[in-house]
Design goal:
15 helices, Pseudouridine synthase, 26 strands, seven-stranded mixed beta sheet, 26% helix, Transcription Regulator spoIIAA, alpha+beta, Rossmann fold
Length: 573
């Protein structure tokens, strides 16, 4: 697999103008204008500079624009310092004309043209809001609106921004009752992406002193949404739409795909490439494991009842450039699937490309972990816990750690690499714990005097530990949504309060509990309520309950929230 081919530094096709003085590009959706993470710079400026240097050009760029990561369109740069002076003066003097195209629903038929004048101010949740004219921190926002086309209650609008406020077009159109489609922050209709595109930029060329106009073609997904609305499952019947969604998913993960470029401590070769509706591909998840990908089809009905759709998706995934594609079909009750059907729903060999070794090593921010791609429905690693494993690594220094429902002990590896004083890994499966030992050995941190593995039902172990008055500085509680042991059946929706109450009893004064669930039927609000009930039942009083976000490669769909819910509970010493 050639990672630079799958995730190229830059694509020449993004350049729409380059005369040696000014360079204009069509910034894709999913790429930030400037680096959000300096340790993993994936912004368009860094990538363009690297591209220019690789082809032997001066990498200097004068930067004066910022587009949201979710907004595509034209961005112009100065290629020379003397040219940059004139370009800067025009941007600072607001003499640059910017035109956007947006797709919205419910724009009034009686308003072919309008000028929106509002006062906007930042809200505590990070969004902008329209406020009273004399509100503190409020600033005037003026946007000219012109209808370009209509189809039913959908409309494509041309927007000229006379001012340059954060999220200006998004908040003003939402306030006008016509939010931009795909806008998760401001209530837009379902769409494959934020339907906002910087269409044209006009200025006076600082070198020639003549008018210059730079345009980025309207992306096909905007026209497609205008004509047909959100495709939903129909995306799998439209080859162009399917390819576009996969391409956008790739761009959103560029920093992960090229993470080895940022140093061994940042290298990550296992992550999510497609996250269902969050990437406009319903009931499809695709995970990267080194040179291979694993496609997960949720349910055997709906879009996946059609064999032709399955083949089309798998063919498209094979074309991305990975060595092989494995398949997992996840029935609604995967825990009840008979062993005889395992090969049918989780083939041991790839359905496209070449097979991976029986066990491969991936890395997660430099931490090595073993996975098996053809070993049933699970690979041995839950990718949505990557950020939590980083937190454990940071919190574990000098601490005693208990990892409950430890599975193959990835959290334990993180704690050990972080300098934990000791760890205990508890799981009902002795074979999973053996894989955990192998993970610690592979990371070079397996010390028998510091790391204990207990094959036991977690409830039984907790009861025994409470009686022995053992306490831990950090307890990790990440039970499966459903499981069956000799003790009985565990269902997170019914039994989480009980297991959390017991787990809280073994947290030392001043310690922490990291509580997680990926049960799709438990909302974030309900999960906090479960944990509050557990605190009352344990008689413990927390100093902080902090909600933790999922990794960026697990985006939620419109109006939804991620499946993984995590809360870090801290206690006074």
């Amino acid at each position: 697999m050639d990672r630079a081919r799958v995730w190229p530094t830059f694509r020449d096709g993004w350049i729409v103008h380059d005369d040696g003085d000014l360079l204009a590009i069509d910034k894709p959706f999913g790429v930030s204008s400037q680096a959000a993470d300096p340790q993993r710079p994936d912004d368009i400026v860094t990538r363009l500079k690297t591209h220019l240097a690789e082809r032997g050009d001066d990498p200097y760029l004068g930067v004066h624009q910022r587009l949201d990561r979710e907004t595509s369109g034209v961005v112009v740069f100065a290629r020379r310092r003397d040219i940059n002076v004139g370009l800067a003066a025009q941007f600072e003097g607001r003499r640059v004309r910017k035109t956007y195209v947006a797709c919205v629903s419910n724009w009034p038929q009686a308003r072919p043209r309008a000028t929106l004048r509002d006062t906007v101010a930042p809200a505590p949740d990070g969004r902008m809001r329209v406020v009273a004219a004399r509100s503190p921190r409020g600033k005037e926002a003026v946007t000219e609106v012109r209808v370009l086309a209509r189809c039913g209650d959908r409309a494509m609008l041309a927007l000229r921004l006379q001012t340059g406020r954060t999220h200006q077009a998004r908040v003003q159109l939402s306030n006008a009752g016509a939010p931009i489609a795909g806008d998760l922050l401001y209530g837009g209709a379902p769409a494959s992406r934020l339907m906002l595109h910087a269409d044209e930029l006009s200025l006076v060329h600082p070198g020639t002193q003549r008018p210059a106009h730079f345009r980025a073609p309207v992306p096909p997904e905007l026209n497609r949404w205008l004509q047909r609305g959100d495709l939903g499952d129909g995306v799998y019947d439209d080859d162009a739409a399917l390819g576009g969604s996969l391409e956008r998913a790739l761009e959103r993960r560029w920093a992960l795909g090229r993470s080895a470029d940022f140093g061994p401590d940042r290298e990550t070769t296992a992550f999510r490439l497609v996250n269902e509706v969050g990437d406009a591909l319903p009931r499809l998840a695709v995970d990267v494991y080194g040179a291979w990908i694993v496609a997960q089809l949720y349910g055997e009905d709906g879009p996946w009842a059609d064999a032709a759709r399955r083949r089309r998706v798998l063919d498209r995934l094979e074309a991305l450039g990975f060595d092989g594609v494995y398949l997992k079909v996840r029935p609604k009750q995967a825990n009840l699937v008979m062993e005889a059907r395992r090969q049918e729903i989780a083939p041991s060999l790839p359905v496209r490309g070449v097979a991976a070794p029986g066990e491969i090593t991936v890395v997660e921010e430099g931490m090595p972990l073993h996975v098996r791609l053809g070993d049933g429905l699970s690979t041995g690693l839950f990718l949505d816990q990557r950020d939590n494993r980083r937190r454990v690594r940071q919190l574990a220094t000098g601490k005693t750690v208990a990892n409950l429902f430890s599975y193959t002990c990835a959290f334990t590896v993180a704690a050990a690499l972080g300098g934990a004083e000791s760890t205990v890994s508890v799981d009902a499966s002795a074979s999973a714990l053996e894989r955990g030992r192998e993970n610690l050995a592979g990371a070079g941190v397996l010390r028998q005097d510091r790391h204990t593995f207990v094959a036991s039902d977690v409830f039984t172990w907790l009861s025994r530990t409470v009686r022995r008055h053992e306490r831990f500085d950090l307890v990790i509680l990440d039970p499966p949504s459903y499981s069956t042991t000799r003790r009985g059946r565990f269902v997170a929706a019914d039994d989480y309060v009980a297991v959390a109450t017991s787990a809280l009893a073994v947290v030392a004064p001043g310690g922490r509990l990291l509580a997680c669930t990926n049960h799709r039927g438990i909302s974030r609000t309900r999960f906090r309520r479960i944990l509050r009930d557990a605190l009352r039942g344990s008689g413990r009083q927390a100093t902080q309950m902090k909600d933790l976000a999922e990794p960026a490669d697990f985006p939620a769909g419109a109006g939804g929230e991620g499946h993984m819910k995590s809360v870090l509970i801290t206690f006074l010493a």
